[in-house]
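With this grant's support, we have settled on a layout for protein records. An illustrative entry appears below exactly as we store it:
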Amino acid sequence: MYRALREHAPIHINPDGTYFLTRYDDVMAGYRHRAMSSDKKVDFKPKFGGGPLYTHHTTSLVFNDDPYHKRVRKLLAGAFSPRQLAALTPVIEDIVEKMLDDVAEMGSFDAVTDYALRLPTEIIADMLGVPEAHRHLMHGYSNLILGALDPIVPPAKMAAGHQAVEEFGALLADLIDHRRKHPGEGERGEVLAALIFGEIDGEKLSDEELVQNCIFLLNAGHETTASMVGHGLATLLENPVELRRLQGDPGLIEPAVEEFLRLQSPLQIGHRKATEDVEFSSATIPAGAFIHLCIAGANRDPEVFDDPENVDIGRDPNPQISFGAGQHVCMGNTLGRIEGRIAIGRFVERFAKMRQAGEKRYHGRAKFRGLKTLPMEV
């Protein structure tokens, strides 16, 4: 469908009057143009009412413009500095080795639930200082909160999303209170500490801002990394020539991760609202229009990528935009790439006879694309 739109209606007007963009250059322009707003305070009100989901999504970094966006992003930036990422790399390696030992012992397992989901959950839990006893809840919270962003959400699913924000928010509020009282405690939760005690121009985050942006960190880092690792393993299983190529040259893992991101973008669609008339390649989008930026379509645009429907783990150049672009580009993109390289690279190195043991299934959300199950044997 995205290919048909890109070829025949690259700036498509939906029945509801919103615009759907699928060409790479248009999507990039949508991300980078100064007149494109990410603020959703008005748009989310009919969807979420005044409940916890509304509070969360309109307080988190991703759905805000400057000056709030700039202030929160600066406070978060320290968590993703080169120094912090260097310190995290051996932690990621240790977690991956433990997970590899576990799946080796199982022999037959689900590569999504038993492997891909565990790594980002553990990393983010460490960053926020979430106790071991509560970590099993984090995936469910993330799914419910992100699932509420789908275009059509059944009432029961919406209610579960509201409850997830409340429950995880209460847990985080307790962690924040404890860390304030014990600022130098432990090695875990350094990102949480940076958010609690950090200041920009003498101003700190409020308690509500702290809680909601910690939930945002879980959702942003958890979903994309798990989907990337799951898609990467599935892509290699379905393309044995590329699997053998990577096994023969482990140094290809870096471009391989970029290719997995291009082929199966974890975030399929971004959203913006035009604050003034904006000219694109084949149309002018009027002020006030709501715009869907199709990352998945852009990442397979033949004007940018040679032979875009096929897998090439050595693809160069590969300017894929799965992490977005412009001032809202995902600030955890380097961490996500490190996680993907280690998790997929070590898996392939260790299990030369890896094989699929059943049908893969997707979780079926519109905005995010990820596997629900991927049965494997090693």
